Amino acid sequence: MSSVLQPATEDQDPPVARSYRPVSPHLAIAPPVSVVIPAMNEAENLPYVFKSLPDWIHEVVLVDGNSTDDTVEVARGLWPGVKVVGQRGKGKGTPCAPASTPAPATSS
After folding, report:
1. Which end of the chain is more exposed for a tag (fewer CB within 10 A), N or C?
2. Global pTM?
3. pLDDT at 67 over 70
């Protein structure tokens, strides 16, 4: 998985939302963060959910439970890079299963 490089200074505390691990006096690593959103017929509510996402989120994965409304289209309109994964099973326990598999490592 790729890392995001950020400048680090000794006299400056890192932002509260991020935790940095110094790798040198001038660089620190902020790990990428993915958000998984299980949804079924949530087109009306997605704007509120996406509005609450911090700008430092690396990836958004929508697990669609076979929605019959515009859930997927609304999600793509709100976050153009959203990854959509179809839910395989039924019930509330299965939406996160496809997205909880570790992503393959990528290089930048």
Report:
1. C
2. 0.62
3. yes
